[in-house]
Write a structure and sequence with these properties.
Pathway: Siderophore biosynthesis. By secondary structure, the chain is of the alpha+beta class. The protein is built from ten helices and 18 strands.
Length: 349
């Protein structure tokens, strides 16, 4: 499928005709939708399912659909224009019971079962390859001389997948592999746009040492961003309480933060940014449901990144002086991200 501008794809989605790919616990599931009939293609683990959608009333109904079919259907609908704030569900008694016990739905004052958009995007059975419950909390005194929770072991392989309809491509985040990714990382660091802000246009040996140091650091994980498995970007995600940013504000135990760069020129621009940037925030909020804030500290003159971060819900808390740079402290609240629907690019149109 060819790449289309965001606006054209969203206009097509408004007609509710086409194909959507969802990832349920890392397994691709295809949804075909035509007018008011939505079909979930069979997988090795489930049969074909037929669902009906009534946009006028916001009712989604099925007689035989199951949980693994419901999630891809909901993702395809909550990604539509105009955006539904909530969807009313007419389901089998067994599926209704399962959803009520999970807490993802509630009963409206009129007696209808309903799921809201902001609750849906916080479910971790979709998008995360290995969804899990929050890591048990045990506080320790860390190397940064602050008391913080023990962090879970770093994940390997693919961490997050999301189909991007206006690109007709799948965005994924995977753990960096030094042997596999060092050549790209070295090339990206020598890109003039990257070098201007990272200032690490070093040798392969020096950059390898840098990545190995981060690999041993429990508070930080290095990630490669890919479109259809092609690497295009590098991210460092970290627990803020143990990070160098901690002395400049009052961090919570589960605050997260990032450093980032786009290394491939072909993947710059609004269409791409609207895919990977909110998805990175989405991943951080899904990775641990106790994370209520995401922070960043871009250089104060990185105006383009700061302006774009504001469009996706970040606010500027203050400007401050790091030993190595003058920075802006940016912060994104979980409530603002999900209730503001900042995962969807329509906010920029």
């Amino acid at each position: 499928m060819s790449r289309l501008p965001i606006k054209k794809v969203l206009d097509e989605q408004e007609k509710l005709t086409g194909t959507y790919i969802s990832y349920c616990r890392g397994i691709p599931v295809t949804v075909y939708y035509h007018n008011q009939v939505l079909t979930v293609k069979p997988t090795p683990h489930s049969k074909q399912q037929i669902w009906s959608w009534q946009p006028e009333t916001g009712i989604l109904a099925t007689e035989e659909g199951d949980y693994d079919g419901l999630l891809p259907i909901l993702e395809s609908l909550f990604g539509q224009i105009p955006l539904p704030d909530r969807i009313y569900l007419t389901l089998s008694a067994s599926l209704q019971s399962l959803l009520l016990q999970s807490g993802m739905v509630h009963i409206s004052p009129t007696g209808k079962m309903v799921i809201s958009r902001d609750i849906f995007w916080q479910l971790n059975d979709l998008w995360l390859t290995f969804p899990s419950s929050p890591y048990p909390q045990q506080l320790i005194m860390g190397n940064a001389q602050c008391r913080h929770p023990i962090r879970p072991a770093k994940k390997t392989g693919t961490l997050y997948r999301r189909f991007i309809p206006w690109l007709s491509q799948t965005l994924s985040f995977r753990a960096l592999d030094i042997k596999e990714d060092l050549i790209d990382f070295h090339r990206w660091m020598h890109n003039p746009q990257v070098a201007e802000f990272w200032q690490q246009a070093d040798s392969c040996e020096t950059l390898s040492d840098y990545l190995q140091t981060l690999e041993q650091d429990a508070h930080c994980q290095t990630i490669i961003g890919c479109f259809d498995e092609k690497p295009f970007a590098y991210f460092e995600i970290y627990w803020a309480k143990e990070d160098r940013i901690a002395p400049f504000y009052i961090p919570d135990d589960y605050d997260r933060g990032w450093h980032l760069l786009v290394g491939e020129e072909a993947y710059r621009g609004k269409d791409w940014f609207c895919a990977w940037f909110p998805s990175l925030q989405h991943y951080l909020f899904l990775d641990d449901s106790r994370t209520q804030r995401i922070v960043a500290e871009p250089r104060h003159d990185n105006i383009k990144l700061i302006r774009n971060a504001h469009k996706f819900g970040f606010g500027t808390i203050k400007t401050f002086e790091f030993p190595h740079k003058k920075a802006q402290l940016l912060m994104l609240l979980r409530e603002n991200f999900f209730q503001g629907n900042h995962i969807h690019p329509s906010i920029l149109l």
